[in-house]
Specification:
This is LysM domain-containing protein. InterPro entries: LysM, LysM_dom_sf. By secondary structure, the chain is an alpha+beta fold. 31% of the residues lie in helices and 22% in strands. The chain has four domains: 6-48, Roll (Membrane-bound Lytic Murein Transglycosylase D, Chain A); 62-152 and 174-182 and 245-274, Sandwich (Immunoglobulin-like); 293-379, no CATH class; 388-505, no CATH class. Strands 5-4-7-8 form a four-stranded antiparallel sheet, with no helix packed on it. The protein has a three-stranded mixed sheet with strand order 6-3-9, with no helix packed on it. A three-stranded antiparallel sheet has the order 14-15-16.
Length: 508
């Protein structure tokens, strides 16, 4: 009996990539493997590439094959578009609807899997414009449709007085809305979109952090796309929970449960927006870049960092003189000190370790008000982003101090090394560059990151944990740290793979 061909998902794979390699389609793979969200596949997952030649499709769709479709509309600045008149063409059926305050349409029943869906919107002249075409597999289908325009609310009216040319204005910042008038007195709203801009920087849902990213890049002497890539890899992201009505395929109305209440499904949407208020339930990691208590205090006590400057400005960090006894001789020495809320100075070195051990009383909790304020700066995006970049540059200096030549590397290459050293720590990062990590250490690191089952899949493919860990981590960093994701106008330069970069700087 002939069986269907199978494929095991590897790091860096997407359903589209797999489909192209095996001359099939995303929709076909989703159908064969009952995948409701084509954007979500896992390393180690076994996919069916085709049906057995003897397999026959069911004559009638099963109950499980009925699905639900809903869509959300956002503008060029990622804001929801409210009140948009939309027409859905679900197969031969046409439905007219209007987006709500969140830019969402109601949920609709899809009568059978692989139903073609066309979405049109009404233009100002009343004509319809097609904005999306897709095929809905069985199960839940969510479409997020981004407009190239910006939604604004205007209260302007035509000027009744004499006409005059608009006054000259300075160039608008990306995202800025300016109200002016034409030479004929008609109201004009000038909206500057994110792209193009002088930095060629595209942040999408993280547009609000543009000024901070640019400032951090300038301090570090790298392109802002490198900072954005690091942040995108490091930062926790905001997930929105949607409660979607469960539609009865026969009545096409929302189902009612046995308790007499409407039935909903929960859908979690990762917005991609960096979460400034993120807090780990398993450790003291807090804020957008998930700094641990001790690491954050260490950066605060490091001269020249953005966080150190703030701590000095608040007078939490200062200098004082202490007496030092050496045998019978007593001398004075100037040392760094932390000022507690009661004006007591903590001076015992290393200062960050002393503060963390003695005055941090729980995860992200301190017994001292001043120290608590310092720890809470992790929740402020400016300090989270600037400190993440400072930490990355500090690790690059550590590599240079160890004799690695980094001057010839691009900013994208340096961003990958920043993430490598942050991910592994400086010691293991050096071993990774030299390819001298032991098999037992590689096994431990890999299983810590992806779990035993997935690690074993990599081991079976690569023959050793050294090769397995190296392949997984290189693929992960190449995917996560990609400066090309943050440009308005793409350039022709090829991204360097991490292994090529580490091989180029490894000591011979």
């Amino acid at each position: 009996m002939t069986t269907a061909a199978l494929y095991t998902v590897r790091s860096g794979d997407t359903l589209g990539k797999i489909a192209n390699a095996h001359r099939t389609t995303v929709n076909e793979l989703a159908r064969l493997n009952n995948i409701s969200d084509p954007n979500r596949i896992a390393v180690g997952q076994v996919l069916k590439l085709s049906e057995s030649p003897k397999a026959k499709p069911p004559a009638v769709a099963k109950q499980d094959d009925w699905g639900t479709f809903w869509a959300q509309f956002v503008d060029a600045l990622n804001n929801p578009i409210q009140g948009l008149k939309v027409a859905l063409h679900l197969g031969d059926e046409r439905l007219e609807c209007t987006t709500d305050a969140n830019g969402c349409l109601p949920a609709y029943a899809v009568s059978k899997p692989n139903t073609p869906i066309t979405i049109t919107v009404k233009k100002s002249d009343g004509a319809e414009k097609t904005v999306a075409k897709l095929v809905a597999p069985a199960g839940e289908t969510h479409a997020r449709i981004a407009s190239p325009k910006v939604t604004i609310t205007s209260v302007m009216r035509k000027h009744d007085g004499a006409t005059r040319p608009p006054a000259p204005t300075k160039p608008a910042e990306p995202g800025e809305v300016k109200e002016t008038r034409s030479a004929g007195g008609n109201p004009v709203q000038q909206v500057s979109l994110e792209c193009p801009n002088p930095e060629n920087l595209k942040l999408g849902s993280n547009f609000k952090y543009r000024d901070i990213v640019i400032a951090a890049a300038k301090r570090a002497g790298v392109i802002p796309q490198a900072v954005a890539a690091i942040m995108n890899a490091e930062a926790a992201t905001i997930t929105i929970v949607h409660h979607i009505p469960v539609i009865d395929p026969k009545t096409k109305k929302q189902k009612i449960g046995k308790d007499g209440k409407p039935v909903f499904k929960t859908f979690r949407e990762n917005t991609g927006e960096w979460d400034a208020k993120s807090a780990s339930p398993r450790s003291s990691a807090r804020g957008m870049t998930q700094f641990l208590d001790g690491t954050w205090l260490g950066m605060a006590c490091t001269a020249g960092t953005f966080l150190n400057a703030r701590a000095k400005k608040e007078r939490w960090l200062t200098q004082t003189t202490i007496e030092v006894k050496k045998g019978k001789k007593t001398t004075t020495q100037t040392v760094q000190a932390f000022r507690l809320a009661d004006d007591t100075l903590v001076t015992k070195a290393p200062l960050a370790n002393t503060l963390n051990r003695k005055y941090v009383t729980g995860r992200a909790k301190s017994s001292d008000a001043n120290l608590q304020k310092l720890l809470d700066l992790r929740f402020e995006p400016e300090y989270a982003i600037q400190t993440a970049v400072d930490y990355g540059m500090q690790n690059l200096k550590g590599l240079e101090a160890a004799g690695y030549e980094l001057n010839g590397l691009s900013d994208g290459d340096k961003a990958k090394l920043m993430y490598l050293t942050h991910h592994l720590g400086l010691g293991d990062a050096k071993s990774f560059i030299q390819n001298t990590i032991s098999d037992s250490r590689a096994e431990y690191l890999l299983k810590q990151q992806i779990g035993g089952k997935k690690a074993d899949v990599y081991f079976d493919e690569e023959g050793s944990y050294i090769n397995a860990h190296r392949k997984w981590l290189a693929g992960y960093i190449d995917e996560k740290i990609d400066t090309k994701k943050f440009v308005c106008a793409p350039d022709k330069s090829a991204a360097t793979k991490l292994i090529s970069t580490t091989d180029s700087i490894a000591k011979k």
